[in-house]
Structure formats: structure tokens, C-alpha cells
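check these C-alpha cells.
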Amino acid sequence: MTNTELADHAAQVRRHIVKMITEARSGHPGGALSIVDMLQVLYFETMRVDPSRPHWENRDRFVLSKGHAAPALYATLAARGFFSEEKLWKLRQCGAMLQGNPDMNTTPGIDMSTGSLGQGLSAANGMALSAKVDAADWRVYVIAGDGEIQEGQIWEAAMSAAQYQLDNLTLFIDHNGLQIDGANTDVMSVMPIADKFRSFGWNVLEINGHDYDAIRSALVLAKHAKGCPSVIVAETIKGKGISFMENEIAWHGKAPDVRQCREALGELGGNV
């Protein structure tokens, strides 16, 4: 897929994120918008999945550890054909398929229920280890937030992944620098992220998380790393693509109103 095609997919996903959260009057636009480009490369180029068989045994697995960014994953899964676009417009409604955090029991394409921060990498470790035990060739991909890696369980999982040489596991850190209470550096500094993972025995790659060539190149390098898990520390922009949301902590967990939605869609090339 060309970069232009990926960019078109990303713009559509970002439009859907804004419309979904506006319709729901609740959600987390900032951190959803920052992971869109990584998801497009994963689902449209890298991962082995079959939307007609969401539980296919030999599929690659994906874990959205920062589960509150679910609208980005939902919109990507709909674009990939796992379910119809109409499902997006009932985000967070009682009885609807798409809730505020991913649910593997109700949503095709969701491999792990997440939302309690810090737990996704541990779940992914279990998946990757089971693939090793079964001599299966499928891989596991994870996206965690930079604020999320303040959780101690992340580092227990980081030790375990290295101990068991889970080279079929790739972790993205969505390093947008902001979390619900402010900047990472003010709340609880996670720096230096890359050096910490190196000290835990990981293969470390550092990229611009909005650069498609950089994302795909890092994924290739991760796939070829042997004997250790890989982490891709992706520098991103919270609220990416919408000028009044970019790098603004207020948009961590606030829904746009109709006027703001219209303005955002105008920037993204869409209509309300």
C-alpha cells in the first residue's frame, strides 16, 4: 500500500474518531488520534488477519493496552472489514457492541479486553509464549501509552518477555508526552524510555510515529530480531490532525461539541 493510500485511510479513521466521540458525548480523542498511523500500517500492511474469520487460529494478535483509545481501533477494524461502519455511531451506548474499552467477547477483531492500564503487555506475553510453545509462526503486537508505563506491571512484563526471549512480540510505546493529569515529566517521568527497555534486554527502535516509512521499517527490523522482544518508541502528537487538539491535555478525555466536530472534520476533509 502506498503512503498516500495509508494517509487516506488515516484521515478517514480520524474523521470517524471525531464523529464517534461527538455522537457519544464521551471518549478520549487525544490518545486515539495519536495512534492512528501505527494502526494503519499494522492492519493494512503488516498483520496477518482475515476479517471473515476473526478467530482464525493462525492470525496475528493485537492488544490495545491503552484501551481508552478504542475508537481508533474500532474505526480501523471497520475500515478493514471486521464489521460495518454503522456500528461506529453507537459508541458507548447501552447494549451496543462498541463500548468505551475493547471487549473481546462482543467485538470481532478484538483479541484482548483491555482498559485497566498496565495489563496489556502481560496478556500479550502470554499469547506470544503460547505461540512459542505451539511452534506457531503468528506474532503479537501491542500499543501502550507512555503514561501507562508508569505502571509497575509493565516492567514485570518487560522482564518476563526478555526472560522468555519473546522475539515474536512487538510493543509500540505511544510517546505523545501527555496523560490525563498533565505532562509525563510533571506527573511521573518515564524518561529515558529507550534506555530503560535496553537495560531490560529488549531490541529498541525509536521512530516518528506518524511517518509511514519509519513505522514499516521498524516493524521489519522487529520481525528480524532474534532472541529478544522488540519495542518501538514512537514519538507522536496527542490529538494529531486537528489543530486545536494537538498537544492539548484538555483533549485527553473530552468529547467535542457539534461546532468543534464540524471544525475538526473541516480540517480532516470531511463533513458532520
About this structure: The beta strands are 61-64, 140-145, 169-175, 178-179, 182-183, 203-208, 230-235.
